[in-house]
């Protein structure tokens, strides 16, 4: 059973007598546990019908005793054992647990949480046969942005795809760490409905001591010295060159669009809406746009594409590629010429 399937099943009041929730992604495991508890036992009855223990502190006899007890004034009781792998450390404990798993009490929902399940050994071999297994493994890189967007949507707001990717780039793939930053973002944006890249940079980037927008703004000012200084710092801190390219491509797309909006004498509100930025950034972006002709912007698109292809298809030193790219973006020198130099 997958993480998603478990949530659907328990929401429909379909429960297995024993669940083994295992894997490295502890936030997903914890949410599985909470979903079972919330759907299996009403809040007012949990004082009598919910037991949570740790395998490092309890023993197998205690766990089986709770699981074998009938519920009080409720249809079910839930018994949770965290650190389950530490509960079954003796042969006697393993045999006792295996005996219960073969014939569990139907009115009890037993939830076993394990960060290290070894299915070559008892009692995990028995659980594989008789329990519902839910593996909570870390998400792949390409799955994290979708998880972020779904999580924020569930909480009543939305996040732009670029902001979602930037959040992942700053925090990594730890869902618990991402969740912590999401909570900070919700406080920061207040009543605003959508999280944008500027919000992520302001909240998450500042705590890291750098932000891709520092680089963007230095390039926007055509300040080659500051741009190179910021680039060097970001590379030293392990910032992704691909992320820089994505965000700088977005920036020059905004510059190109802004050129057209200026010709149409668009209002600041319309500019902010069209560029996807906050109104107080409009004057700054207008100042940046004065530094780049359409020809320069088009040339920068080619330079960004060349750098992206070079990083993905060759073993050329990343630092050199990015140095040449930033120089090209600021000075307007063709990236292809620099690459072949």
Summarize the structure in short.
With 341 residues, the chain is α/β, with parallel strands linked by helices. The protein is 60% helix and 9% strand. It is built from 18 helices and 7 strands.
Topology of this protein?
Blueprint: H1 3-11, E1 18-22, H2 26-40, H3 46-49, E2 50-54, H4 60-67, E3 77-82, H5 91-102, E4 108-114, H6 124-130, E5 132-135, H7 144-154, E6 158-159, H8 161-171, H9 175-189, E7 194-195, H10 197-208, H11 212-220, H12 224-236, H13 241-263, H14 268-275, H15 282-289, H16 294-313, H17 318-331, H18 335-339
Parallel strand pairs: 1-4, 1-5, 2-3, 3-4, 6-7
Helix pairs in contact: 1-2, 7-8, 8-10, 9-10, 11-12, 11-13, 12-17, 13-15, 13-16, 16-17
How is this structure best described in words?
- The chain is of the alpha/beta class.
- The protein is 60% helix and 9% strand.
- The N and C termini lie far apart (56 Å).
